[in-house]
Recover the amino acids of this structure.
């Protein structure tokens, strides 16, 4: 079977453009702005695209308003999204009206309503609500393989065949568990361990400490993909910033595993791509 080679070039360029507009928003006026709201377990990210779906601005904040994909601090979540929205509106000199959001796969009936209400409560018109790995694939554009989104609280798995999502799953293991392991191993308070883990210069030292928890994530991935003919795994989500995570997952699953340069902002950008100007029913 001939296989397409995903280069990540477009994705890497888009993410690096987004990283630069976080620091320096594009202030030339656009006729419309599309915002993606990623309300995560560890981090709330707003990605703003212009009328041509090019990154215009972005902001994020580490927060504790969602656990295992569920909104646990509803008022806190609205406040953070509203504050980030206002911060971006001030930088862009315009009101942000349209937004889309995402939820971990499978939590739709439980929590989709809460996420929608948070986005509306913050003052947006919500135009789309999709699952996280599917959002990530709006940027990656994978036709065949598994997109695995390892976030703060959960790992989302989406299997694609000929460009269609044929299976989605979400499991409550993610970067928060990595931080707990660091906290235990180094006798550090959780917040300190979380910050220590995020520093790239510590990754080489941390990889052996984190290997067992990465292998646990790999075993979760294996369990979900075993009934499908998956030839490649594509990693996204903040936890995949950990240098070397892809090698452990590849070895443990036996499936070629790849990731873009900065896997952290792929899902928020994918969410923004699905935003339009029509309010959801
Ligand atoms: P979820 O998708 O589970 O709801 P989330 O959307 O908050 O969570 P992401 O924003 O994709 O998840 O990722 C957040 C996680 O990524 C956190 O656990 C954070 O510690 C981790 N993370 C972020 N940057 C890095 C880094 N440079 N190195 C290692 N881990 C990182």
């Amino acid at each position: 079977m001939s296989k397409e080679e995903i280069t990540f070039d477009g994705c890497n360029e888009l993410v690096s453009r987004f990283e630069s507009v976080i620091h320096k928003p594009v202030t030339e006026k656009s006729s419309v702005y599309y915002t993606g709201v990623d309300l995560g377990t560890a981090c709330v990210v707003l990605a703003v695209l212009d009328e041509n779906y090019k990154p215009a601005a972005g902001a994020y904040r580490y927060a504790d308003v969602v656990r295992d994909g569920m909104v646990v601090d509803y008022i806190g979540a609205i406040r953070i999204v509203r504050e980030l929205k206002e911060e971006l509106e001030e930088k862009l000199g315009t009101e942000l009206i349209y937004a889309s959001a995402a939820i971990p796969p499978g939590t739709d009936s439980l929590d989709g309503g809460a996420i929608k209400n948070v986005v509306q409560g913050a003052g947006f018109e919500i135009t789309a609500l999709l699952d996280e790995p599917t959002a990530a694939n709006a940027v990656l554009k994978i036709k065949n393989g598994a997109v695995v989104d390892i976030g703060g609280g959960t790992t989302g798995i989406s299997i694609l065949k000929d460009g269609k999502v044929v299976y989605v799953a979400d499991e409550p293991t993610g970067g928060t568990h990595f931080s707990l392991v660091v906290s235990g191993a180094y006798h550090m308070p959780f917040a300190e361990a979380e910050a220590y883990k995020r520093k790239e210069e510590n990754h080489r030292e941390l990889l052996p400490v984190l290997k067992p928890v990465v292998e646990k994530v790999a075993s979760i991935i294996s369990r979900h993909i075993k009934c499908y003919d998956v030839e490649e795994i594509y990693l996204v989500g903040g936890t995949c910033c950990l240098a070397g995570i892809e090698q452990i997952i590849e070895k443990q699953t036996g499936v070629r595993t790849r990731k873009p340069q900065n896997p952290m902002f792929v899902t928020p950008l994918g969410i923004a791509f699905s935003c339009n100007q029509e309010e959801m029913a």
Notes: The mean pLDDT is 92. The pocket of adenosine-5'-triphosphate is lined by residues 38, 40-43, 66, 69, 132, 151-154, 174-176, 194, 197-198, 200, 237-239, 241-242, 264 (CB under 6 Å).
